[in-house]
Amino acid sequence: MATFAPLQRLVIAVAILASFVTFLDGTVVNVALPAISRDLGGGIITQQWVVDAYLITLSALILLAGSLSDAYGRVLVMRIGLIGFGVASVAVAASFDPLTLIVARAVQGAAGALLVPSSLALITATMRGDVQSRAIGVWTAFTTAAQLVGPLLGGVFVDFLSWRFVFLINVVPIAVTLVLLARLRLPEHPRGTGVDWWSGALCALGLGAVVFALIEQPVRGWGSPVIWAPGAVGLVLFALFLVRQQRSSAPLMPLGLFRVRDFAWGNLATLFVYAALSLNGFVIGVYLQQGAGLPATAAGLASLPMTVLMILVSSRAGAWAGRLGPRLFMTVGPLVMAAGALLLLTVAERFDYWWQVLPAMIVMGLGLSLTVAPLTAAILGAIDEARSGIASAVNNAVARVAGLLVVAMISTIVGGTLDLAGFHSAAWVTATLVAVGGIVSWIGIRGIPADAAGADGPAQPAGAG
């Protein structure tokens, strides 16, 4: 980070570390799922809930956190989130049955919701233009590496210690971030306005009910009132959430943001790309252990090529997108990822990582490296600084909801059992999702800078041109 000023380097370091713990914890769990299931029981449904309990509160409350960040200051909200996340992590590690673990994961997700929008908003509020694009590229490289290196660290802990230690990995980065945060002096201007707590409740309950229906449906069927009733109630609650956003004086998700073309289309691309990433991460982490018979550490190592490529290429892709525009990268990157996902169809009963999985990881890693930083820069660069916190929160919420829904549907996608046929089905769905993300980007993204928009008006209406 030699090209950044000292204050900018400190901001980037804090943003990376604060996001690191949530991204790491969101993915490190995948490789620990078989061990958790063996220890606490529950099968694939418990495994889904361990992932989705975290994602439900993270997805739903990240919007509320965005408003809190803008209303009361990013540093304060981030400090509270870090402390809460550390405490919840200890509770997760100490869980003694599936229910306790799931509840603790939900609390952990709620604390994590305070971190991501505040951390990225620090960058978007203090840097603009090419400097911002390069900073987001650096942030993306390290935070995405956290998502990808998580399975490796988790595998080492599962094989040589216990799955419980997997959830204590983030204690050190939390402590370091709190120290750096105390040194950060930024001229913040919190609005001090009210926060729409009712909207947060409607969003959380609506998502939770829908996810419950999706996860339990393969067991009970859609005809069961235990399934369709929560599903219907969840959809109604989420519809009420959207209606409230139109009428609220301080909405958690200002629908007017979606009149900005790059913001709207970029979030649609985010939905498809991050759904694919979540599906691939879950399936790789579980199948390589339960299906291919690899130890947890080896299963974690499977994604290491993606990590290396993200670190080497992502910051450069962010800088290239700052000069050339994000559209090309957001189109080509997902299509390359789709090709990589299709290479996973070579996985056979006679398993060989070097010829069946490694090529797919390399190709997917290259595509991901070209995609993520330009995608983030396009979305947040389309929105003025005054609304950077809520814009970041909306984008992160879209990404988490994408993962939340696809994990809830994993039993349906793989046909109830994550065997070889189920693994291949997941590869097809992954390839389709990222390909659609690339097509959406080509159709919608124009690369209009935020400076071209007024403080309250959109840069260009979605769908125009």
- Poorly predicted residue ranges: 448-465
Q: What is the alpha-carbon Rg in Å?
A: 21 Å
Number of helices: 18
CATH architecture of the largest domain: Up-down Bundle
Describe this protein's structure.
The chain is an all-alpha fold. The protein folds into two domains: 6-186 and 252-452, Up-down Bundle (Growth Hormone, Chain: A); 196-251. The protein contains 18 helices and no strands. It has helices at 6-40, 43-72, 74-93, 98-113, 116-126, 129-160, 163-166, 171-183, 197-220, 225-247, 261-290, 296-301, 304-324, 327-343, 353-381, 388-408, 410-414, 420-444. Helix 1 (6-40) packs antiparallel against helix 8, helix 3 packs antiparallel against helix 4 and helix 3 (74-93) packs antiparallel against helix 5. The longest helix is centred in the first third of the chain and has 35 residues, at 6-40. It is globular, with a radius of gyration of 21 Å.
List the helices and strands and how they pair.
Blueprint: H1 6-40, H2 43-72, H3 74-93, H4 98-113, H5 116-126, H6 129-160, H7 163-166, H8 171-183, H9 197-220, H10 225-247, H11 261-290, H12 296-301, H13 304-324, H14 327-343, H15 353-381, H16 388-408, H17 410-414, H18 420-444
Helix pairs in contact: 1-2, 1-4, 1-5, 1-6, 1-8, 1-11, 2-3, 2-4, 2-9, 2-16, 3-4, 3-5, 3-8, 5-6, 5-16, 6-13, 6-15, 9-10, 9-16, 11-15, 11-16, 11-18, 13-15, 14-15, 14-18
